[in-house]
Predict the 3D structure of the following.
Amino acid sequence: MESYYTLITGSSSGIGKAFAFECARRKMDLILVSRPSERLSAAAEEISSKYSVDVKYFAIDLTEFDAPRKVFEWCLEQQLKVNYLINNAGTVGTNPFDKCQPEYLDSIIMLNIRALTLLTRLFLPELKKHPGSKILNVGSMSGFFPIPYKSVYSASKSYVHSFSRSLQAELKGSGVEVYLVAPNGVQSNPRVTERIKDHKLIGALVSMSAEKFAVLALDKVEKGRRFYIPLFSNKLLFALSRMLPDTLMLNLIKKEFRKELGS
């Protein structure tokens, strides 16, 4: 029997690690891709030991120009058949735009947009060889709104949403299904958790643990749900945003996210 692999980016910690553990629990063999760190090898060893699945890993910084191609070529060299691509890796922060270093802004674009796009393009011919293949792109509620102090991040997630929905239509009937999930606050690391706490009651209502998010997202993919917003509170927030005048909505969002700046 041939072995097929689920490739997960950003899988040494946070949401990506939660995805890796949940996929392994569902008996998927894995390829973990993340920045060089002892956490990556440790996660691979722990998952393999706990769930008795095959776990490969490749350490690389996906913001590097040639990184997507290096990942793809490594998989070819290792003769690893990928039938599930989870584009999870991303970076986020909260800062006034004019205070952001150009290198920081470039890293968001390179990781959230460029790496996701090129990995999808490079692996697509391989995915098409295996009927039932899937691509899961991790978007964000931020992609539905212009967000002051997260301007480039929210714009990058808007790109992910548009890109994913376009591919859903374009690849219909190709044997490759594209899924998009758009969470709000996910408690993926202590820093993010503190930012969620800055929003107090609202933060508590719209957020969840990385482990719960991974379970919900993968469940929806298994059920064929192409687009998914986790939690009723987030669905309500999305619906309400469509009813408010743009100027009012933007002012409310600016006031809310200023809290993450401590002002």
Strands lie at 4-9, 29-34, 55-59, 81-87, 133-138, 176-181, 186-187, 208-209, 227-228. The chain has one domain: 4-261. The chain has a mean pLDDT of 93.
